[in-house]
Amino acid sequence: MLNHSDQRPHDGHPRVAFVLSGGGNQAVSQVGMLRALLERDIVPDVVVGTSAGALNGSVVATKPALARVEHLADVWLSIRTGQVFPGNRFARAWNVLKRDDHLFENDGLREIIAAADPADTFDQMAVPFRVVATDLHSGEEVVLAAGPVEPALLGSTAIPGLFPPIEHDGMVLIDGAVTDNVPLWHAFASPVEQVYVCNVSGGPAERRMKSPLDIAVRAFAIARNQRFDLELRHAPPDVEVVVLPQPPDDRELFDFSDAHMLIEEAHHLAARALDEHAQVVEARRAQEKARRRWFRKPRVA
After folding, report:
1. 141 pairs with which residues across the strands?
2. Where are the alpha helices (DSSP H) in the chain?
């Protein structure tokens, strides 16, 4: 179901979609990317996010303004490992021995969502917002675009085995990144001309792999990135897709340090990429304009 604001009138500018990938703690870099976009008055008409990208997307969709991005930066800067993954290694091992369906409660995630302060419901968003999750029972990809926002975000960020699955709307939801880590194709469900992809899921292995969890996360990422590459190659020819660069990030999954540095580096890279892209587009338009003038030049008898 689509948000009713999908039908809102447009002002003649190209329709824009923001797509935010999953990536766990690496999603902090999306803050810098969003800052660079909004600084250039690139405002979304629809926002699509999965996993940690859904959290970031919910803030921008609630109100696409620089002040909201700066608030989101403050949220990321405040996150500590113990808030998201409480306990030490012994406690985690004990949780495994208990044979529960998760290692950590999601109280910390709830606190982070509350601090981010997205709209309570999808229809209160300033622009249409879609959250990608996975139904644990059916294995199907799920797109949530109506109803309460918090359970959608909790479900989309429920990393299997780490956080509890979320029962919502007759489904049992887990991390959307399991089925679609870069939900590009869902941006095309609305009539858009430009898509800006904030992909922090990584290409070649950058993060140090020091545990079985690291290896499992990397293995799943390989398969998911292949899907993104395929969707990118088959994007509609009339839609311009811009993938923003990601700064190097080799932190472990449980490490939330260096947030400020990563935001600044992502902002720098995105700003440069957007400015270079704008120059290319302007040069292309000038060539097209000159070509049209040449075709219209009257023939001399």
Report:
1. 134
2. 29-39, 52-62, 66-78, 81-84, 89-97, 107-116, 149-156, 212-233, 259-296
Cα(153)–Cα(161) distance, rounded to whole angstroms?
Answer: 17
> Tokens 């679609």 — which residue?
180
Q: Are strands 16-20 and 46-50 parallel, antiparallel or unpaired?
A: parallel
Distance (Å, whole) CA 21 – CA 173: 17
Q: Beta strands 129-135 and 171-174: pairing type? A: antiparallel
User: Can you tell me whether residue 190 is helix, strand or coil?
Assistant: coil
Strands 194-198 and 16-20: parallel
pLDDT digits (tens, 9 = 90+) for 183-202: 999 999 889 999 999 999 86
Under a CB-based contact definition with an 8 Å cutoff, are residues 207 and 249 in contact? yes
Buried b vs exposed e over 30-50: b needs ≥16 C-beta within 10 Å? bbbbbbbbbeeebebbbbbbb
What is the pTM for the complete model shown? 0.87
Q: How far apart are CA 42 and CA 16, in angstroms?
A: 8
Strand partners, 16: 194
Q: For residues 164 and 55, give the distance between their C-alpha atoms in angstroms, rounded to a whole number.
A: 17
- How far apart are alpha carbons 159 and 155 in whole angstroms? 9
Positive or negative, the Cα torsion across 174, 159, 185, 46? positive
* 221 close to 202: Cβ distance less than 8 angstroms: yes
What distances in angstroms separate CA 208 from CA 51, 211, 215, 217, 254, one per listed residue?
21, 9, 9, 11, 12
**What is the model's pLDDT at position 98?**
57
